[in-house]
Design goal:
- This protein has 2 domains: about 120 residues; about 60 residues, no CATH class.
- Helix content is about 70%, strand content about 5%.
- The protein contains 6 helices and 2 strands, in the order ααββαααα.
- Strand 1 and strand 2 form a beta hairpin.
- Helix 1 runs antiparallel to helix 2.
- The radius of gyration is 34 Å and the shape is elongated.
């Protein structure tokens, strides 16, 4: 059945498509991406909280110790100033690292979502190109049989495009893009006289 959907001749005809399925799939993908993004943002927030919790506890412990001091206030405060400064510096470094990781994770997530969207678009276009022919059948006036519309187009093309070229023949001639571009022919030329011009 898959052979019914492979175009035999180059063509410029666009067919009307029912886009309900495509729009529904895009909406589903958008919802999936939104859910994934929310989950990742939630996990990042929890991770940041977990990273900050030990330092918050240390700061709370220091505050409690300072409140309970009665002797050697000056010396003790100087020592705690050093400890607090060290902790603040360490927290600042850790926060910088956390922010960098969040940015990197966000960029990676964005790139991943872009890739998934691109792959899904390729998949949708492939599905449309492979299956749209099965939706349309016509009566072959030569045989009276119901045939896929692409098969009917190929049959008519064989009668009217006497110098046309099939994809199979194009493949055997194996022109590179540079060689094809150097031919300086239009797509209509390729359609009508490809057998002579495409070599």
């Amino acid at each position: 059945m898959a052979d019914d959907f492979i175009y035999k001749y180059p063509h410029t005809i666009l067919q009307e498509l029912n886009l309900d399925y495509i729009l529904r799939r895009i909406a589903e993908i958008e919802n999936s991406i939104k859910t994934i993004k929310e989950q990742i943002e939630g996990e990042i927030f929890e991770w940041v909280q977990e990273q900050l919790a030990p330092y918050e506890q240390q700061l709370n412990d220091l505050i409690n110790e300072v409140n309970n001091l009665s002797d050697h206030v000056d010396t003790t405060l100087a020592e705690y100033d050093v400890r607090i400064t060290n902790i603040d510096n360490h927290v600042a470094v850790e926060l910088t690292n956390i922010r960098r990781e969040i940015v990197e994770n966000s960029e990676a997530l964005s790139a991943l979502m872009d890739l998934k969207i691109e792959n899904n678009n390729v998949y949708l276009l492939n599905e449309i190109s492979q299956n749209v022919g099965s939706l349309f059948f016509v009566v072959d006036p030569f045989t009276g049989n119901h045939v896929p519309i692409q098969q009917m187009i190929d049959t008519l093309s064989e009668y009217h495009i006497t110098d046309g070229i099939t994809y199979a023949v194009m493949n055997t001639r194996a022109l590179t893009y540079t060689q094809f571009n150097a031919l300086n022919i239009t797509y209509s030329d390729l359609l009508m006289h490809g057998h002579t011009l495409y070599q």
